[in-house]
Amino acid sequence: MIEVINAHLQEYGQRPDVLVCAPGRFHLIGEHSWFCKDKTLSMAVDLPVYIGISLRNDSAVRFHFVQLDERKRANLSSLKFRKEDRWANPIKAMIYGFTSGGFSVGGMNVTVWTDILPSAGFGITTAIKTASAYGMRELFSVPCSDAQLLQVIERGNKLFLGVGNYTADIFSAMYAEPDSCVLTDHSRNSYELLPFAFEDTVVLLTDARVPRISVWDETTLHEPGNVLLLGELKERRHNVHGGWQYEDSPTEINEVLAVVNEDMRRRLRCIMLEHQYVLDAADGLRHGDFARFCKAVSRSHDAMRDLYLLSCPEIDWLVKRVQNFDMTSVRNPNGCSRITGKGFGRCTYTILKTADVEPYKQKLVEYERIFGFHPSCYSVKPARGVHLVRE
């Protein structure tokens, strides 16, 4: 905390009037099925983003990203998206989210502090947005509730940045608690906190440093016709969490999906399976059943690899190393691993028994020798959502 305050003081000649912390995050299962109102299981983690903000006596806005040693500037009267402003655009979007909703904010100096850069893919950009919006509400005494703050973020995303408003990202940054995961129900626009209480386990995030090269356009899956097809295959089930699940009859599935090509059928089938894996993993969390949880995670990665075609050889190699740690103990597995995020390379999460952490890290040395990419590995814990930092 003191480093953020000192950086702000050095840059602007004043201490921040408010200091806010927001967590990084990753999605365990279900991050690719939000478009059809399914569920996503996420974890906010202790990869913190700090935003320090102080008042100015004019309408200027100044931004400083400490780790990048970069500075940007804007003015409230001519706030625009500029491609070259990169990491500052999300903060400007939150200003727009307030002003476009009739709320008033003034000039400000902003400091961004995070050891994990946005390019890593661990929810850092969402943390920057959430912490900025939370801090502005406090600094300018904006009379808006948490529900209205969610609308501020949504307006900034959709109207200023022109990007989707991913509810699971925002709920994780806003409402997470230590030792918990966040289950987002996109059909109800609601969330549930589930305990993460697996003893003697460690959560590792690995940035495999594989450049993302998309092999197909995921937005083709989001067409209304595909959403309607999946809607036909949803069944009400009172004994299932959330009140529904997908049809499991192969005959019925094949009949409904017969109108799309093989590639699209495979990907839609993956979305259907993913919903069940979310339910299974959530059930494992509720009952402290590590084996059930790991089984759901492993099956989800296999589906992402084989049906969704979202993985790559480097990511699969890392996941396979975890699966090989204890091939004889299906009932009591040592851990699980899965690709996370946008896919087509980059990041995995791994949940291991403590004794297997060092052997896993040794595998990363072997990974670098084989593939030539230098991975980064972070040991993380479930963390609290956005909050003010008091001195």
Molecular structure report:
InterPro entries: GalKase_N, GHMP_kinase_C_sf, Mevalonate/galactokinase, Ribosomal_Su5_D2-typ_SF, Ribsml_uS5_D2-typ_fold_subgr. This is Galactokinase. Residues 7-54 form the Galactokinase N-terminal domain. The protein has 11 helices and 14 strands. Helix 2 packs across helix 3 (124-139). It folds into 2 domains: 1-192 and 384-388, Ribosomal Protein S5, domain 2; 197-380, GHMP kinase, C-terminal domain (Alpha-Beta Plaits, 2-Layer Sandwich). A hairpin with a 4-residue loop joins strand 6 (180-185) and strand 7. It has 391 residues and is of the alpha+beta class. The strands form 3 sheets. Strands 1, 2, 3, 4, 5, 6, 7 and 14 form an 8-stranded mixed beta sheet that branches. A 4-stranded antiparallel beta sheet has the order 11-12-8-13.
